Amino acid sequence: MKKRYALLAAGLMSLVGNAFAAPASSDAIPDIPFTRFQLPNGLTVVVHEDHKAPVVAVSIWYHVGSADEPAGKTGFAHLFEHLMFSGSENRKGTYFQPFELAGATDMNGTTWFDRTNYFETVPTTALDMALWMESDRMGHLLGAIGQKELDTQRGVVQNEKRQGENRPYGRVDENILVNTYPANHPYHHDTIGSMADLDAASLADVKKWFHDYYGAANTTLVLAGDITVAEAKAKAEKYFGDIPAGPPVPRQQAWITPLQTSTRGTQHDQVAQTRILRTWVVPQLGTDDAIQLDLATTVLGGGKTSRLYQRLVYQDKLADDVSMGISPFALASQVQLSVDVRNGVDPAKVEAAIADVWRDYLAKGPTDDELARAKVVNRAGFVRGLEKVGGSGKAAILAEGQVYRNDPAAYKKDLARAQAATVGSVLAASKTWLAKGDYTLTVLPAAPGFDPAAEDKAVKGLGPSDHRPDAVMPKPADYTVAKSTVDRSKGVPSVDTFPDLVFPKLQRGKLKNGIEVILAERHTVPITQVQLLFDAGYAADQGRKLGTASFTSTLLEESTTSLDSVEVARRKERLGAFVSANCTLDTCGVGLNALNEQLTPSLELFADIVRNPAFKADDIERIRGQWLAGIAQEKTEPTGLALRSLPPLLYGKDHAYGIPFTGSGTESAIKSLKAADLVAFQRDYLRPDNLRILVAGDTTLEAILPRLDAVFGDWTPPATPVPKKNIGQVAVQPKPRVFLINRTDAPQSLILAGLLAPSTKAPNALDLGIANGAFGGTFTSRLNMNLREEKRWAYGAGSMLSDAKGQRPMLFYAPVQTDKTAESAAEILKESKDVIGTKPLTDDEIAKIRAQRVRALPGSYETTSAVLSALSGIVIYDRPDDYVQTLKSRIEGVDRKDAEAALSAVIRPDAMTWVIVGDLRKIEAPVRALNLGEVHVIDADGNPAKPVKAPAGSKAAAKHTPSTPAAGE
Length: 969
Description:
- The protein is 38% helix and 17% strand.
- By secondary structure, it is of the alpha+beta class.
- The strands form five sheets. The chain has a six-stranded mixed β-sheet with strand order 1-2-8-3-7-6, sandwiched between helices. Strands 14-15-19-16-18-17 form a six-stranded mixed β-sheet, sandwiched between helices.
- α19 (599-611) crosses α24 and α25 (765-777) crosses α32.
- The longest helix is centred in the N-terminal third of the chain and has 19 residues, at 147-165.
- Residues 1-25 and 953-969 have low confidence and may be disordered.
């Protein structure tokens, strides 16, 4: 619930470059040109033309969500969304397969309080296929949905719920909703629903939901991309014109129910630190007050320069993190403040400091400078999204405006009101809504033996209210259907031709001190992205304190020798510039994303950050506290635990990669870090003779080289040489091993198994990647179809290959329900043996992945960030400059034998290292009985753990002998 206002946040403000019709002034509001029309059956169609890439985003929004669920049917809107991917009457089987073959990107479906949407971005030549598929499930679904399909997706959704609740703080939303909205409010329950209600869902419920809500008149179709209005109209009529309008759908009305007094609750969870969450109920999406409150939350808790962050983190040192934002919905919105309390601090002190900041803010409001910076942050986020048509981009913006407000251009009104906001208007909205009652939920670390289900069951929540407004029926309309001209018995339209990839030719130049600059021009939006790429990474921690590389990179974003960290942050906000520093296994990078109108001052600030870090004691101590809290949090989260534990077991603790893959290091190392360690790392690795500068965006080589020379051209390296990293070769494990980590009362187990694969630079890297796509790397891969679609034991499962210059890890990943942990591990082992034994990958499986990879290329480089990422891969892995342009022919050259050989060389079931995180009282005995390999029980640090007692009378009780884990060789 910490999202920023939907129509102003960067993630939801994705518009197109070619459609950015507004002038480049800082006050201009971008335009997304569109045409809207309605078919005779009531289907609303919105079309936006953007011909920069040969792709079309298809986004279908049904005006129904979890808020429309009757009592006893919670979770049904989301369950039905899953059923929509189970096939249709004229196309049985999983919905994803034709889209994978066509190279679709940004494909998914989501459910929220007020809508359910389905979306994909496809090559222009695959649009008929996509519209046939969408219309077939809209008009011809029920004949394909039986008890088997319902039971399958019910199991998948229940595992999705378990997976969410297995994360730290994963149970807070349900608690907050029942304590902030009355029992008869549509938002009183969360979208995922209750296990009991999901169990009770029947086929009759499925049919009724489809009949009541999935008619054409309750639906908006958005087509955005390489398409004309005439084409869109003809195709919409052809594929959707014969679908019935459906019955009139009653529209629920806005119901804002602010708490009249402040109330409190407490929750316990397997977390490393206390979190305080305060929630206010405020006006709905599109209201003026919601716009003003978005700006208010930015000022109060929107980042490092915000009032609460300054007071709680910088000044009083009471918290490690603070965030605040507004989540806008159609009937009401929520403002939420989240504070992670520093360990050892009394939460009451934190609340007292918050109250102090609150009083001052409500008395005076924001300053002119605070408000101006908040506006720039919002506008900059908007402009950065000007490229993407699909996903959460332009198509979603237009659909959201149409569905909720009957106006695809509603975002313009919101942006104009935000731009016109004054100190007085923001303060007035704040006094109206943030001075009212709120609900404070304090989440505390749970003690051993804690029962989360019992605690949740004891939560009473608010009772019903007498003031719920009646739903309003739409005006009567005389809808008609057209006669279908599509012979659906012929099946899905074939996709026989595909557009060519367009990727910029790389250009190279040098600064006067010899630093190489590599540019990919991309003239779609007035943005330039610059990345400084240093050959360093986590691997450079070898011989140092683990975590040094990442810690040093993070400190680059703090104070410089001339500016303190707060002033650095303020200047970035005023410029609308994003600066980020991070490391991966093999590299460290510092990136700048700048508005062209502010490029020169942004580059000057960027250079100061990179070249002149101060490594001040205050900054180090503040980041150290946050860092240690982050490591502690990793140890409470199943995936974090596994990613910390597995690499040292795979590579051995003496290998450069034998470190936690989170990059955060260890507590002991971080506690001992001094400024001198950071200075030494900067001197050794973050230097001009270990650097290449990558640029992508709206610039030319002639324009960018002088600007880069002005800030980096006089940078000289130290006299000492760059240290050589030692990335040694690791031998195959002589036998399989199993490492168990206890997480008492976990609703799921996480299975992570690892093997070592050749470097990303290996000649057969493409062969292996395609083979892995068929085995575990896509939705229709063997692993996912087995554990998710057939067994219903997981929300998702698969295998992945992480990039690395040295041997890279191949990881098998499956979060599964607790009572199927051993069975799931057995299935992963079985699939691994089969694929290199009696059931090798088939020609069809390889052809499917080959086709998907090639056909996805035109839509894969739609954004400047994607281009920069490809450029980075070319540089890191010594690829030719035309690597992307020639990828199609090389992928097409991969045959089954090559893929099979590459996979067989890596998958060795008798050498697998397994890390399984779960409630050992329930899973240890069944896992031991599998005889996967020698079993070790370890703690969160990889050390031998104490025995875990099974519940009295439990069949899961097992003899447990702690043993020292063997390091990788």
